[in-house]
Amino acid sequence: MTSITSDPPLRKGFGLLQYAICLKGIVWREALRYLHQRERFISALVRPLVWLFIFAAGFRSVLGVSIIPPYETYILYPVYITPGLMAMIQLFNGMQSSLSMVYDREMGNMRTLLVSPLPRWFLLTSKLIAGVAVSLLQVYAYLIIAYLWDIAPDNYWGYLTVLPALILSGLMLGALGMLLSSVIKQLDNFAGVMNFVIFPMFFASSALYPLWRVEEGSPWLAFVCELNPFTHAVELIRFAFYMQVNWLSLAVVLGCTVVFLGAAIIAYDPSRGMLVRRGGPE
Amino acid sequence: MNVLQQDRPTEDPAPAGDAPAALSVDDVSHSYGKRKALDNVSFSVKPSSFTVLLGLNGAGKSTLFSLITRLYSTQTGTIKIFGYEVGRDPGEALRRLGVVFQARTLDMDLSIQQNLLYHAALHGIGAAETKARAAAVLEQTAMADRTKDKVRDLSGGQMRRVEIARALLHHPQMLLLDEPTVGLDIKARADILKHVRELVHSGIGVLWTTHLIDEVNPDDDVVVLHQGKILDKGRVSDVVARAGVADMRAAFTKLTGTGPLGGES
What mean pLDDT comes out for the span B27-35? Predict the structure, then answer.
């Protein structure tokens, strides 16, 4: 029989170790779920590879990319879209996390997380970090295959310098997904996210074509692309892959991460967020 | 003093002197838009006591449950767990609380042990300590031989036992159960009810939410909730006496003006 009297009195508050245990537990659980969903890993990998091997191969002779930073020479189209596809993996992963949170809410698992005594901002941030960790695995698996296709940065250190950019852009896109999960009422509504968030963000960005090309065809679309945070995630990754920093993109991605995460935390706050306006996280 | 009489809330944090109530709910009201789900609800649960929150579907039980667990924020009134206000000091309040939700909240794709490890991590308890605690709580709930099994492979009654084991894992001092026997067969219901009643002897305060009147014992404390209002509270014998009827079933029918509550077959 469990006896509460045998326990020492609870010390008020939580120590750093307890926060670390909680973070580790959330990341571990996300990784376990990911391992149980092998098809998720495969589809996450197949999607960018289809773009790389089919779309980019088809367009390489049609679309020339002139010398633009961070490139120091003419490049092939598959080389150009590789950072965009890295960001695409993270975009889909962020939205997948959003879907997973809606599913957890519908199945009731979300309550287990939300009744934890640790601060809610910490729980949500931990969940976000767990999602980013999963997306990093996917991106590096993609980079290994791209390397075999002869697509690699000029310097192998690029694989390392791109890591902080991937973490930051993963946090931004994951936070956006988390925010969306707070406003999606049911799993059925997730198709709307595909149509109204993922596709516009991806196509109205510099992932598939440089912005100067877009501007030639449609200045207003180029303007929209410049406003798109996903464009800046792509450019941050692109520059970091070539061991450079795009400061504007860094500022935009950092700012958007703070705003999206702050809004998601508010949305999941029981007194202020979207959940209470809807009648709770049922 | 009757445990269900409105005792004065303790100061925050938990003071010396009089032991604070395991759970105190004071003047709590809650609305969804214009619809009032709870109206000035007040009661308390003492440590080492078994209290039944009795009400029909739609009485406001689940709303109250969500407020106690801070899934919703209190609009008016205060809720304290061992003197710690849920709204102001959620960490201290929630770490003393074990919860079994009406809907299943286990991760079906993980094993029992993995579910327990995850729950313990959410309370900042490390893996080594969790394994020792898990062995004890699973032994208690007669699930020790199924540790490695996936939750998906368990029956409804077994899942409930695992949820109770999980709720006890961080050694809470107050246990909330929201209609935990819904959908279970008669034997599973009886086993779970018996087990939870035994927990009271170890010092845990229990709030058992149900709409099944046959889950109420004559020596229990009961809170009758109907359409968001408490109609009566106290020892079952006192509630029955005040209603001037023969038993709790008749008392409930008289208080609520509804047909009799059934047991679930």
Answer: 90
Partner residue facing B202 (CB), from A4, A123, A272: A4
Domain B1-47+57-96+173-237 matching CATH 3.30.70.60: the answer reads no
Contact B66 A4 (CB under 8 A): no
Our CA angle for A141, A147, A149, nearest 5°, is 115
From the candidates B49, B67, B71, which should be mutated to test the interface with A, based on the most A CB atoms within 10 A? B71
Q: What pLDDT was estimated at residue A277?
A: 44
For A2, which of B87, B121, B137 is closest by C-beta distance?
Answer: B137
**For B165-217, what is each residue's pLDDT tens digit?**
999 999 999 999 998 888 778 888 888 888 889 888 888 999 999 988 889 99
Residue B244 Cα, gap to closest chain A Cα (Å)? 38
Residues of chain A with pLDDT under 50: 1-6, 273-274, 276-282
Q: Where exactly are the structural domains of chain B?
A: 1-47+57-96+173-237, 108-171
The closest CB to that of A114, out of B71, B119, B173, belongs to: B71
Asked if A7 lies within 8 A of B92 by C-beta distance, the reply is: no
Q: What is the ipTM of this complex?
A: 0.81
Answer whether A26 touches B (CB < 8 Å).
Answer: yes
pLDDT level of residue B2 (50, 70, 90 thresholds): very low
What is the distance of C-alpha B189 from the center of its chain? 15
Nearest CA in chain A to B91: A117
How does the average pLDDT of chain A come out, rounded? 83
